[in-house]
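Sharing a chain and its predicted structure for anyone who wants a worked example. Both blocks are below, sequence first, tokens second.
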Amino acid sequence: MSNAIGSRKRCRKWMFCPAGDPLEMLRWLVTCRRFDTLAITKEDALRAKSYAAAGERSRLATSSANIEEYLASLGTQVAVGCDTTAQISRVAQLTQKTNQFNLTTRRYTETEIQERMQNPTWRVFWCSCRDNFADEWGSSAPCWSRFKAASGGSIRS
């Protein structure tokens, strides 16, 4: 058995490009569908506005007399919600990210998030932020809590 075939058998979840030359490789990458987006959330669609808003904030920061004035002029608003089905896609998307805000290595699907919302022992919370420049952060902080009869709850994020 060749080394490449043996590698493929050991790595079934990986996809190997069979192309030999760069043009074949490009054709394979375009047609393999491994890079398709499962869903585009409101936050994804607003990404360009997010970059423009960041520039506006930067200009405001340099023109403000101090940090207190800058923060006050942003007009930041925060909303917190619980068990909102309209947030399922975004909450699931955020659990798929690997960054400093995902405190676990667990990833959840939309179905799993919906099951938690329907389970009376779980609460799925989300946080949404905006300021005078944009609603760019959108839903940015999923958190769920499981309530146990006598011991209160435990929080997962």
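Comments welcome. The helical segments are 3-10, 22-31, 42-45, 47-63, 67-74, 88-96, 110-118.
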